[in-house]
């Protein structure tokens, strides 16, 4: 599947863009940090491509929804990642996970369901009736009870923690903030699992000594951002307070994020940008701006170049190397989120929005030809970005 912008997107890999995006060596990185950030990014903006116009209409939403519709009931192939402690615990996915058995793995199934809910809630698409029927079948009391029973088994304590936990809370928040009869019913059915996951994630964050600074599923910051948006949306003041306290303890003293190490070869999350996207939720504006100054070099510094350039993906169909496609979409979301938290006259905003557009176009283009290894999850990351689920404090975002 290929989704294009309203204007034909210019290729990212041009000589001009390469000169603007690709930086120098780590030795120069240390030297750059000694200089204060510039107050004017006009030269960088001039070198970067102008953004293409974009809108998510029902047709494009339908193409994205089709990817989730194609996988939420597709049981195989499946990577269960279950711990078995006897023959009787080796069971097929549909038995282990009665509601979320499709889309290759549990977390992808959860955010595949979220993707359908999000599009139904915000844009709409042609196959709405089919989507509602599937959601109605999966958000059934007995199936959610089966999911909860799985998580309460001691051997499954760490299952899908923290990535799947974050997405489950995102799904719950989406349902709870949607004024729709079906959504209200589905939210009530999901609530026991939602409460368990919220409590389990909160307890995990309390016992975690240091954060996991990963670019894949173990990222602490990624799950905390989902959980913070959930807590803000549903009014869970206790969980929100705990997340903000732990975020400060984990990240407030951080400086000089090692941007030269990014991206790692199978990342779909930028550790540096994700941390900043979490902290813009947690810190008031007076604290955020100086924190960003300590955390990142100037946006036109050579040390920031690894975050300006979309990653090269040599095999889109490889399910691990293809993670880098999602990285572009996640970076775009983070850039937009960080930009939204800065004062309107902050010169960084225009650069961050431009970089968001570059990464958005790169990720959407590379989704084409990614095969099932990409299609079972990339739609969710695209929808997250294109419906503004990430940049603002509440996941409710736009509505129909």
3D structure, described in words:
With 400 residues, the protein is an all-alpha fold. 56% of the residues lie in helices and 0% in strands. It has one domain (56-386): Glycosyltransferase (Alpha/alpha barrel), CATH 1.50.10. The longest helix is centred in the middle third of the chain and has 27 residues, at 181-207.
Summarize the topology.
Elements (H helix, E strand, L loop, with lengths): L14 H7 L4 H8 L8 H6 L10 H12 L23 H4 L9 H17 L5 H11 L2 H11 L11 H14 L4 H27 L12 H15 L2 H15 L19 H12 L2 H11 L9 H4 L14 H19 L6 H19 L4 H5 L2 H9 L14
Helix pairs in contact: 4-6, 4-19, 6-9, 6-19, 8-10, 9-10, 9-11, 10-12, 11-12, 11-13, 12-13, 13-16, 16-17, 16-19
């Amino acid at each position: 599947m290929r989704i294009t912008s309203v204007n034909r997107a210019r290729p990212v890999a041009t000589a001009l863009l390469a000169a603007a995006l690709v930086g120098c060596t780590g030795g120069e990185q240390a030297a750059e940090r000694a200089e204060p950030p510039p107050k004017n990014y006009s030269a960088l903006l001039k070198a970067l491509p102008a953004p293409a116009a974009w809108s998510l209409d029902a047709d494009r939403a339908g193409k994205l929804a089709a990817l989730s519709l194609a996988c939420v009931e597709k049981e195989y192939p499946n990577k269960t990642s279950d711990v078995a402690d006897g023959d009787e615990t080796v069971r097929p996915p549909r038995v282990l996970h009665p509601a979320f058995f499709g889309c290759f793995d549990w977390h992808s199934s959860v955010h595949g369901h979220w993707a359908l809910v999000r599009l139904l809630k915000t844009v709409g698409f042609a196959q709405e009736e089919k989507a509602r029927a599937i959601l109605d079948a999966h958000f059934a009391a007995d199936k959610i009870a089966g999911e909860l029973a799985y998580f309460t088994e001691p051997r499954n304590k760490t299952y899908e923690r923290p990535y799947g936990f974050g997405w489950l809370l995102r799904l719950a928040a989406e349902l709870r903030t949607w004024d729709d009869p079906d959504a209200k019913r589905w939210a009530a059915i999901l609530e026991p699992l939602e409460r368990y996951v919220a409590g389990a994630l909160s307890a995990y964050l309390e016992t975690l000594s240091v954060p996991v600074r990963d670019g894949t599923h173990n990222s602490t910051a990624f799950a905390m951002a989902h959980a913070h948006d959930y807590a803000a949306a549903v009014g869970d003041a206790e969980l929100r307070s705990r997340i903000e306290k732990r975020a400060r303890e984990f990240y407030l003293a951080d400086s000089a994020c090692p941007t030269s190490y990014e991206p790692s070869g199978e990342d779909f999350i930028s550790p540096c940008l994700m941390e900043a996207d979490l902290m813009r939720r947690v810190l008031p504006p007076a604290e955020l701006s100086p924190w960003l100054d300590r955390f990142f070099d100037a946006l036109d510094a050579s040390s920031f170049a690894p975050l300006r350039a979309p990653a090269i993906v040599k095999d889109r169909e490889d399910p691990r190397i293809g993670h880098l496609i999602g990285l572009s979409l996640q970076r775009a979301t983070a850039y937009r989120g960080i930009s939204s938290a800065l004062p309107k006259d902050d010169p960084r905003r225009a650069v961050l929005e431009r970089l968001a557009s570059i990464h958005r176009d790169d990720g959407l283009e590379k989704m084409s030809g990614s095969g099932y290894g990409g299609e079972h999850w990339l739609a969710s990351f695209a929808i997250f970005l294109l419906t503004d689920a990430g940049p603002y404090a509440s996941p409710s975002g736009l509505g129909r």
